[in-house]
Amino acid sequence: MVDLFNAVADSNGITRDPKILEGNVVRSFQDRVHYDRTFHFFNVSSFGKHEKMIKAEFRMFRRKQTILSRNLLGHHFYKLDLYELLDSRVKPWRGNLITSRLLPVYTQGWEVFNVTDIVSKWIHNSNANNGILAVTSLPSGNLLEYVLPALKRSKLDEKNAYLVIFSDDGRKMSKTDSELSQGSRKSPVTDAAVTLMKTENAVPITRGNKSRRTRAAPYNSNRHPITCQRVPLYVDFEKIGWTGWIISPRGYNAYHCIGSCPFPLGESLRATNHATVQSIVNALKLSKDVETPCCVPDKLQSISLLYFDDEENVVLKQYDDMVALSCGCH
């Protein structure tokens, strides 16, 4: 899961490409069986009922046979059959065949099996979840028992199987660059505001009337008002007490917006049409209740978080609208 996180996000969690993942949530469920290398059970109760499952994978680490049984001598491959168990009994067991695969005897690595249909049934009916059984045999059909070298107990206790579910939680993704590009285009309403300033009847923009409270604009070191802009805001997960459940990243730069939105609102302030009209009404003092527009994020980006859920499963999830990419007057 850490490798997957590094593939989809940088060190700050910024998503490199949302299309890399299938959906926006990836969950890794631990094998709840610790005494048997052939029987695997996964508690999928934490999967959200409102989520749409896209794909489920059973991932099993296949170890190289360093000490071979007599019936393996002369063979280069063995057969692995995966079964969906139909009841809670392991011996004698009943099951439906999921898939079969021929595997080399002298190599090791992760094997990935598509179990989408089986897991979908488990999610809709938890009583149908009796686990998965992995049965090994020779190509001839004779059952094959694992023969393990003398390993320390800590090695035998290592997890060798996971269930990984890719899903979509139904949230709408953040607006794309093309959808937000209107902030950089010249607005007819902005043109109207500039024209208004040039007319003979335009009211000079002064602050002689102090009867209405106005926002205090921030100033730079030269005591000049700062116009709407983006500035850094680093969020350290350790300082806010989130490192107990977030695996990666350790923090990220969220940025935030500061500054004023002075009349007339120029193109650089990325003002909405509504903000431009509000600015005109404020400048002309047509209503004492209308203040100047606010400097807020107008383009946001998602980040990816790798964390533990309440069941201690590892989850990789994209969270929308976590980083301010630009600021504008709204």
UniProtKB/TrEMBL annotation:
Residues 212-330 form the TGF-beta family profile domain. The keyword Secreted applies. InterPro entries: Cystine-knot_cytokine, TGF-b_C, TGF-b_propeptide, TGF-beta-rel, TGFb_CS. GO terms for cellular component: extracellular space. CDD domains: TGF_beta_ADMP. It is found in: Secreted. One of its GO terms (biological process) is tube morphogenesis. It comes from the Eukaryota. One of its GO terms (molecular function) is cytokine activity. Keywords: Disulfide bond, Glycoprotein, Growth factor, Secreted, Signal. Belongs to the TGF-beta family. This is TGF-beta family profile domain-containing protein. It comes from Anguilla anguilla.
